[in-house]
Amino acid sequence: MSTPQALDRQALRSRFLAQRSLLSPVARTRLSLQIIEALLALPVFRDTNHLFIYCNYHSEVETTELIRRCLRAGKTVSVPLTRPDQSRMAAVAITDPDADLAPGYKGIPEPLPALIPSRLLPLETIEIVVVPGAVFDRQGYRLGYGGGYYDRFLSGAAAQARRIGLAFSLQVVERLPVFPYDIPMDIVITEKELLQWPRNAR
Ligand SMILES: Nc1nc2c(c(=O)[nH]1)N(C=O)[C@@H](CNc1ccc(C(=O)N[C@@H](CCC(=O)O)C(=O)O)cc1)CN2
Ligand SMILES: Nc1ncnc2c1ncn2[C@@H]1O[C@H](COP(=O)(O)OP(=O)(O)OP(=O)(O)O)[C@@H](O)[C@H]1O
């Protein structure tokens, strides 16, 4: 990470993580519920069975209510299990966010170790990936925490899945510096707008 563009990205990431953390917990919860309602109202949601949903950490858009609503609707929900030794994520099915999660990698809520062998799901079955981020742009590109986990995930076995980024509106910029391995979102949802890019038009 030493090219000027890479340094730009690091500065952008830090700036937007700092901005995001300024939202009060009450505002974060209120805006998160608005964002989740917009996702649940998407026509594609009704036809989806398996969603891979991040478990929110620090000041990310909150997803616990989304996970509950999906489970109540009879959908399969898997969540990320970070495998830092491989820079990869696995998908582990959960049935109850209160009982099935505990702090894992970096303190992120992750599936309990006892669940892992029996609940690993093939990434090819994921239909929607709900993606967190530090900052998104109006072309659908994003920066996360810098591990490259989602780029690897979305260009690998989960490439068929619809990619839906969740962000507070303060996390959207016009244009980010893009690298060849960056995978753009299909949809970005904030409390103010829903941005969408048809895949065949990219
Ligand atoms: N909720 C959630 N789960 C996720 C991700 C994510 O972005 N959000 N990931 C997507 O890649 C993977 C974990 N990757 C991560 C890589 C680095 C850091 C990290 O460096 N955290 C900083 C704190 C940053 C902050 O200020 O918020 C640290 O520990 O110092 C965190 C997660 C898989 N699970
Ligand atoms: N498909 C890939 N294959 C191998 N390495 C990759 C791939 N995608 C990204 N990387 C590597 O991951 C590193 C971090 O990428 P990037 O800065 O885009 O992370 P990020 O999108 O912010 O992180 P995350 O996806 O974990 O939230 C880069 O140094 C890049 O070389």
UniProtKB/TrEMBL annotation:
UniProt keywords, alphabetically? ATP-binding, Magnesium, Metal-binding, Nucleotide-binding
Do you know which InterPro entries this protein is assigned to? FTHF_cligase, FTHF_cligase-like_sf, NagB/RpiA_transferase-like
Kindly list the residue ranges recorded as spanning the membrane.
none
Which principal EC class is assigned to this enzyme? ligase
MF terms from GO for this chain are: 5-formyltetrahydrofolate cyclo-ligase activity; ATP binding; metal ion binding
Its GO biological process annotations read: folic acid-containing compound biosynthetic process; tetrahydrofolate interconversion
Q: Which domain of life is it from?
A: Bacteria
Is Amino-acid biosynthesis a UniProt keyword of this protein?
no
Q: Cofactor(s) for this protein?
A: Mg(2+)
Q: Which reaction does it catalyse?
A: (6S)-5-formyl-5,6,7,8-tetrahydrofolate + ATP = (6R)-5,10-methenyltetrahydrofolate + ADP + phosphate
Q: Where does substrate bind?
A: 60
Q: What is its EC number?
A: 6.3.3.2
The similarity comment for this entry is: Belongs to the 5-formyltetrahydrofolate cyclo-ligase family.
For this entry, the protein name equals: 5-formyltetrahydrofolate cyclo-ligase
The protein's organism comes out as Desulfobulbus propionicus (strain ATCC 33891 / DSM 2032 / VKM B-1956 / 1pr3)
Q: Source organism lineage?
A: Bacteria, Pseudomonadati, Thermodesulfobacteriota, Desulfobulbia, Desulfobulbales
